[in-house]
Design goal:
194 residues; mainly alpha; Arc Repressor Mutant, subunit A; 2 domains; elongated
Protein backbone atom coordinates (compact mmCIF):
# COMPACT_ATOMS: atom_id res chain seq x y z
CA UNK A 1 0.00 0.00 0.00
CA UNK A 2 1.34 3.42 -0.96
CA UNK A 3 2.05 5.91 1.77
CA UNK A 4 -0.24 8.95 1.81
CA UNK A 5 1.27 12.19 0.58
CA UNK A 6 2.04 14.55 3.39
CA UNK A 7 2.93 17.37 1.01
CA UNK A 8 0.34 18.01 -1.66
CA UNK A 9 1.13 18.93 -5.26
CA UNK A 10 -0.44 22.32 -4.47
CA UNK A 11 2.10 22.79 -1.66
CA UNK A 12 4.91 21.80 -4.03
CA UNK A 13 3.74 24.29 -6.65
CA UNK A 14 3.48 27.05 -4.03
CA UNK A 15 7.05 26.22 -3.01
CA UNK A 16 8.02 26.36 -6.68
CA UNK A 17 6.62 29.90 -6.88
CA UNK A 18 8.71 30.97 -3.89
CA UNK A 19 11.84 29.35 -5.30
CA UNK A 20 11.23 30.93 -8.73
CA UNK A 21 10.90 34.35 -7.12
CA UNK A 22 14.19 33.83 -5.33
CA UNK A 23 16.19 32.10 -8.07
CA UNK A 24 14.48 32.51 -11.44
CA UNK A 25 13.96 29.59 -13.82
CA UNK A 26 17.61 29.36 -14.91
CA UNK A 27 18.99 28.79 -11.43
CA UNK A 28 16.00 26.85 -10.14
CA UNK A 29 16.72 23.22 -9.36
CA UNK A 30 14.61 20.36 -8.11
CA UNK A 31 16.87 20.45 -5.06
CA UNK A 32 15.88 24.07 -4.33
CA UNK A 33 12.18 23.21 -4.56
CA UNK A 34 12.75 20.09 -2.48
CA UNK A 35 14.43 22.20 0.18
CA UNK A 36 11.41 24.55 0.21
CA UNK A 37 9.03 21.61 0.70
CA UNK A 38 11.08 19.28 2.88
CA UNK A 39 10.83 16.58 0.23
CA UNK A 40 13.63 14.70 -1.51
CA UNK A 41 14.42 15.72 -5.11
CA UNK A 42 13.66 12.11 -6.10
CA UNK A 43 10.09 12.59 -4.84
CA UNK A 44 9.70 15.56 -7.16
CA UNK A 45 11.03 13.49 -10.05
CA UNK A 46 8.47 10.78 -9.23
CA UNK A 47 5.63 13.30 -9.22
CA UNK A 48 6.63 15.63 -12.06
CA UNK A 49 9.25 13.72 -14.07
CA UNK A 50 11.75 16.56 -14.40
CA UNK A 51 12.35 20.23 -13.77
CA UNK A 52 10.49 20.97 -17.02
CA UNK A 53 7.57 18.83 -15.87
CA UNK A 54 7.47 20.70 -12.57
CA UNK A 55 7.58 24.07 -14.32
CA UNK A 56 4.84 23.04 -16.75
CA UNK A 57 2.68 21.97 -13.81
CA UNK A 58 3.41 25.34 -12.22
CA UNK A 59 2.44 27.14 -15.46
CA UNK A 60 -0.78 25.15 -15.71
CA UNK A 61 -1.63 25.98 -12.09
CA UNK A 62 -1.11 29.68 -12.83
CA UNK A 63 -3.34 29.48 -15.90
CA UNK A 64 -6.03 27.48 -14.13
CA UNK A 65 -5.91 29.73 -11.06
CA UNK A 66 -6.15 33.09 -12.82
CA UNK A 67 -9.73 33.61 -11.60
CA UNK A 68 -8.86 32.96 -7.98
CA UNK A 69 -7.76 36.52 -6.99
CA UNK A 70 -10.92 37.92 -8.57
CA UNK A 71 -13.13 35.38 -6.77
CA UNK A 72 -11.40 36.14 -3.48
CA UNK A 73 -11.78 39.90 -3.97
CA UNK A 74 -15.51 39.52 -4.69
CA UNK A 75 -16.21 37.77 -1.38
CA UNK A 76 -16.61 41.00 0.60
CA UNK A 77 -19.29 42.34 -1.76
CA UNK A 78 -17.16 45.40 -2.57
CA UNK A 79 -17.95 47.62 -5.57
CA UNK A 80 -16.56 46.36 -8.92
CA UNK A 81 -13.70 48.87 -9.16
CA UNK A 82 -12.58 48.02 -5.62
CA UNK A 83 -12.68 44.32 -6.53
CA UNK A 84 -10.58 45.09 -9.61
CA UNK A 85 -7.91 46.93 -7.62
CA UNK A 86 -7.87 44.28 -4.89
CA UNK A 87 -7.57 41.38 -7.34
CA UNK A 88 -4.82 42.94 -9.42
CA UNK A 89 -2.74 43.86 -6.38
CA UNK A 90 -3.26 40.37 -4.91
CA UNK A 91 -1.69 38.92 -8.05
CA UNK A 92 1.62 40.52 -7.03
CA UNK A 93 1.42 39.84 -3.29
CA UNK A 94 4.57 37.71 -3.29
CA UNK A 95 6.71 40.25 -5.17
CA UNK A 96 8.53 42.48 -2.73
CA UNK A 97 11.75 43.39 -4.54
CA UNK A 98 12.72 44.14 -8.14
CA UNK A 99 14.97 41.05 -8.19
CA UNK A 100 11.93 38.84 -7.57
CA UNK A 101 10.14 40.51 -10.47
CA UNK A 102 13.21 39.99 -12.65
CA UNK A 103 13.15 36.29 -11.79
CA UNK A 104 9.47 36.08 -12.72
CA UNK A 105 10.24 37.85 -16.00
CA UNK A 106 12.72 35.06 -16.68
CA UNK A 107 9.78 32.68 -16.50
CA UNK A 108 7.93 34.92 -18.96
CA UNK A 109 10.74 34.28 -21.45
CA UNK A 110 9.90 30.57 -21.23
CA UNK A 111 6.21 31.41 -21.68
CA UNK A 112 6.97 33.25 -24.90
CA UNK A 113 9.61 30.92 -26.35
CA UNK A 114 8.09 27.50 -25.61
CA UNK A 115 4.67 26.61 -27.09
CA UNK A 116 3.79 24.34 -24.15
CA UNK A 117 4.37 27.15 -21.66
CA UNK A 118 2.81 29.75 -23.98
CA UNK A 119 -0.47 27.84 -23.99
CA UNK A 120 -0.78 28.25 -20.21
CA UNK A 121 0.36 31.88 -20.24
CA UNK A 122 -2.18 32.70 -22.95
CA UNK A 123 -4.95 31.04 -20.94
CA UNK A 124 -3.94 33.11 -17.92
CA UNK A 125 -3.92 36.34 -19.95
CA UNK A 126 -7.33 35.60 -21.49
CA UNK A 127 -8.86 34.84 -18.11
CA UNK A 128 -7.47 38.01 -16.52
CA UNK A 129 -8.74 40.08 -19.46
CA UNK A 130 -12.18 38.52 -19.16
CA UNK A 131 -12.33 39.13 -15.41
CA UNK A 132 -11.26 42.76 -15.84
CA UNK A 133 -13.85 43.35 -18.56
CA UNK A 134 -16.60 41.73 -16.48
CA UNK A 135 -15.81 44.03 -13.57
CA UNK A 136 -15.76 47.07 -15.84
CA UNK A 137 -19.18 46.14 -17.28
CA UNK A 138 -20.46 45.78 -13.71
CA UNK A 139 -19.02 49.21 -12.90
CA UNK A 140 -20.89 50.68 -15.88
CA UNK A 141 -24.08 49.00 -14.65
CA UNK A 142 -23.64 50.40 -11.12
CA UNK A 143 -22.92 53.87 -12.48
CA UNK A 144 -19.31 53.91 -11.26
CA UNK A 145 -18.04 54.18 -14.84
CA UNK A 146 -19.44 56.26 -17.69
CA UNK A 147 -22.16 54.51 -19.67
CA UNK A 148 -20.27 55.02 -22.93
CA UNK A 149 -17.02 53.40 -21.68
CA UNK A 150 -15.77 50.79 -24.15
CA UNK A 151 -15.16 48.09 -21.55
CA UNK A 152 -13.27 45.82 -23.95
CA UNK A 153 -10.70 48.47 -24.88
CA UNK A 154 -10.54 49.77 -21.33
CA UNK A 155 -9.90 46.23 -20.02
CA UNK A 156 -7.02 45.85 -22.47
CA UNK A 157 -5.59 49.23 -21.43
CA UNK A 158 -5.74 48.23 -17.77
CA UNK A 159 -4.06 44.91 -18.50
CA UNK A 160 -1.33 46.71 -20.44
CA UNK A 161 -0.85 49.29 -17.68
CA UNK A 162 -0.67 46.51 -15.09
CA UNK A 163 1.89 44.42 -16.98
CA UNK A 164 3.89 47.44 -18.07
CA UNK A 165 3.81 48.79 -14.54
CA UNK A 166 5.34 45.55 -13.26
CA UNK A 167 8.23 45.84 -15.70
CA UNK A 168 8.85 49.54 -15.05
CA UNK A 169 8.81 49.00 -11.30
CA UNK A 170 11.29 46.13 -11.68
CA UNK A 171 13.59 48.43 -13.64
CA UNK A 172 13.31 51.49 -11.41
CA UNK A 173 12.84 49.78 -8.06
CA UNK A 174 11.21 52.98 -6.84
CA UNK A 175 8.46 52.94 -4.23
CA UNK A 176 6.11 50.14 -3.36
CA UNK A 177 4.89 47.95 -6.20
CA UNK A 178 1.26 48.03 -5.09
CA UNK A 179 1.23 51.83 -4.94
CA UNK A 180 2.74 52.08 -8.42
CA UNK A 181 0.26 49.59 -9.90
CA UNK A 182 -2.75 51.27 -8.32
CA UNK A 183 -1.61 54.67 -9.60
CA UNK A 184 -1.25 53.26 -13.13
CA UNK A 185 -4.65 51.55 -13.01
CA UNK A 186 -6.34 54.66 -11.61
CA UNK A 187 -4.76 56.82 -14.33
CA UNK A 188 -6.30 54.59 -16.99
CA UNK A 189 -9.68 54.55 -15.27
CA UNK A 190 -9.90 58.22 -14.26
CA UNK A 191 -11.40 59.60 -17.51
CA UNK A 192 -14.30 57.13 -17.16
CA UNK A 193 -15.00 57.25 -13.42
CA UNK A 194 -18.24 59.05 -12.63
Amino acid sequence: MARPRTTSDEDVLAATARALGRLGPGRLTLGAVAEETGLAPATLVQRFGSKRGLLLAFAQRAGDGARHPFEQARQDGAPPLTVLRTALTAMTADVREPEQMANHLGFLQMDIADPDFREHAAAHARTVASEIETLLREAVNTGDLAADADTGRLARSIQLAYNGGLVLWAISGEGELVDALLADIDAVLSPYVT
